């Protein structure tokens, strides 16, 4: 199937992007990497009248170290972030998750912000952003706004972004001095996770744990390392579990019970910089 006809524009400035979003609203879609958008257009799940290409905007193709957070612009590809020299030191959990995101070819086009904006509950980067307590930077003609990841991602493929707003950047807090771990189960390496689990160590033997693929958005909880198996089992039993062609809710709960405790253990024993 092919998409319905639409107009295409490649603005020269961010200001032009914001003008177009203000004019077209829900009838416009922003194209950065297109790894999710183009298939949805071809399947006619989306039928915009205008496609706004931001992929070549230098102002959005930036990675800034803000000290306590790393700000990643909307045009930064996943491979560009993977090759950013300080990544392992500054954002070890992001480095681990990126190894599971798609394949080299898709990461050459797919963007970090695009994955966040798409808000697939099985995607790795929304899970990590939520777990780290990151932020999403939104711009419109009305100004610049910042939303916590937990407030931005509302449900499956649903965010708090308004029609005239651009996801201009995301900010991942630096956690370079804490043990981290990430693992997932997928049908094939590079596919969206059936279940993904990430953990960041806190004080007093406690881990902050996130699970993706279980519900319409990433779920988070604080868990004591010494009671990890019990806590993960009880948490899994509370959850209905997302049902789709890849796995039942019961299978997802079972995977979470098996995957969660080893991830927490790995984070608790990890050297600074994390573990795969």
Secondary-structure element pattern, one letter each: EHEHEEEHHHHHHEEHEEEEEEEHH
- Low-confidence runs (pLDDT<50, min 5 residues)? none
CATH topology of the largest domain: Uridine Diphospho-n-acetylenolpyruvylglucosamine Reductase, domain 3
SS content category: alpha+beta
In the CATH scheme, the class of the largest domain would be Alpha Beta
Helical content class = 25-40%
In this structure, how is the largest beta sheet organized?
Answer: 5 strands, antiparallel
Number of domain modules: 3
- CATH architecture descriptor name of the largest domain: 2-Layer Sandwich
- Give the oligomeric state: single chain
* Helix segment tally: 11
Query: Strands of the biggest beta sheet: in what spatial order?
Result: 4-5-10-6-7
Radius of gyration: 19 Å
Number of strands: 14
Strand content: 25-35%
Mean pLDDT rating = 95
Overall geometric form: globular
N/C terminus separation: 39 Å
Layout of strands and helices, then pairs:
Layout: E1 7-9, H1 14-24, E2 28-31, H2 37-42, E3 50-53, E4 63-65, E5 69-73, H3 78-82, H4 87-90, H5 92-98, H6 104-109, H7 112-118, H8 124-132, E6 135-140, E7 143-148, H9 149-152, E8 153-155, E9 158-159, E10 166-173, E11 180-185, E12 195-201, E13 206-212, E14 219-224, H10 228-238, H11 249-269
Parallel strand pairs: 1-3, 2-3
Antiparallel strand pairs: 4-5, 5-10, 6-7, 6-10, 8-9, 11-12, 12-13, 13-14
Helix pairs in contact: 5-8, 10-11
């Amino acid at each position: 199937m092919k998409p319905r006809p639409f107009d295409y524009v490649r603005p020269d400035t961010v200001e032009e992007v914001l003008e177009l979003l203000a004019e077209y609203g829900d009838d416009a879609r922003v194209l950065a990497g297109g790894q999710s958008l183009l298939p949805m257009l071809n399947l006619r799940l989306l039928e915009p009248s205008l496609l706004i290409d931001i992929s070549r905007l230098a102002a959005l193709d930036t990675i800034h170290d803000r000290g306590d957070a790393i700000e990643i612009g909307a045009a930064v590809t996943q491979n560009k972030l993977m090759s950013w020299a300080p990544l392992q030191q500054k954002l070890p959990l992001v480095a681990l998750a990126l190894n599971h995101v798609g394949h080299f070819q898709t990461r050459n086009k797919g963007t970090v912000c695009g994955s966040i904006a798409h808000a697939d509950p099985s995607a790795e980067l929304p899970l990590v952003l939520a777990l780290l307590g990151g932020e999403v930077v939104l711009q419109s003609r009305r100004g610049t706004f910042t939303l916590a990841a937990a407030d931005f991602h509302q449900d499956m493929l649903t965010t708090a972004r308004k029609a005239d707003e651009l996801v201009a950047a995301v900010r991942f807090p630096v956690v370079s001095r804490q043990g981290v771990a990430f693992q997932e189960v997928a049908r094939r390496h590079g596919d969206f996770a059936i279940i993904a689990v990430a953990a960041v160590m806190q004080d007093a033997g406690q881990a902050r744990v996130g699970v993706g693929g279980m519900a319409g958005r990433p779920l988070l909880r604080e868990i004591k390392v010494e009671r990890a198996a019990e806590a993960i089992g009880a948490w899994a039993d509370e959850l209905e579990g997302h049902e789709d062609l890849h796995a039942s809710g019961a299978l997802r709960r079972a995977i979470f019970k098996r995957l969660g405790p080893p991830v927490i253990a790995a984070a608790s024993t990890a050297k600074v910089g994390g573990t795969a």
